[in-house]
Specification:
- This protein is an alpha/beta fold.
- The chain has a single domain, classed as Alpha-Beta Barrel (TIM Barrel), CATH 3.20.20.80.
- Helices cover 36% and strands 11% of the residues.
- Strands 1-2-3 form a 3-stranded parallel β-sheet, covered by helices on one side.
- Helix 2 runs parallel beside helix 3.
- The longest helix is centred in the last third of the chain and has 21 residues.
Length: 140
């Protein structure tokens, strides 16, 4: 079986519907308790307390609050039986001068534009990630 065929079979079996989940709280996941499996295509939380001029679509207020929001959102996704996965919007912040085609310069990365990690966010991701499978097993 080739890779393309395997991917199609997986997609049909899971029937995952992608969500662009730019929500300010994890409460939107409460609505996903039935129907097809859901894959959250991207989410982020930003802040302007360290370098950037725009926080993104969801302003957490500070790097500490970004980390707390990340942890709460991912835990909510893990606890929701309909969600099969979620992923953070992007690895690095957008360029300080803005992206070339629309000017976004959001603080939405795990690292800043100099590839320096945001320690609060990295620590939250490690903590949530260490418990994700145990937590998912309890949620079912």
């Amino acid at each position: 079986m080739n890779t393309s065929c395997a991917m199609i079979i997986c997609l049909l079996a899971v029937a995952a519907a992608a969500l662009g989940a730019q929500q300010s709280t994890e409460r939107m996941l409460d609505k996903l308790d039935s129907g097809p499996a859901e894959l959250i295509g991207e989410f982020h939380f930003g802040a302007m307390d360290r370098g950037m001029f725009l926080p993104g679509l969801v302003d957490a207020g500070s790097q500490k609050a970004r980390a707390e929001s990340f942890a709460a959102y991912v835990r909510s996704a893990v606890d929701c039986p309909a969600v099969v996965g979620c992923h953070w919007c992007q690895y690095a912040d957008e360029p300080i001068t803005g992206r070339y085609y629309h000017g976004e310069n959001y603080n939405i990365g795990f690292v800043d534009v100099t590839d320096t990690p945001y320690p609060e966010l990295v620590a939250a991701a490690r903590k949530v990630g260490a418990d994700i499978y145990t937590r998912r097993g309890r949620a079912r």
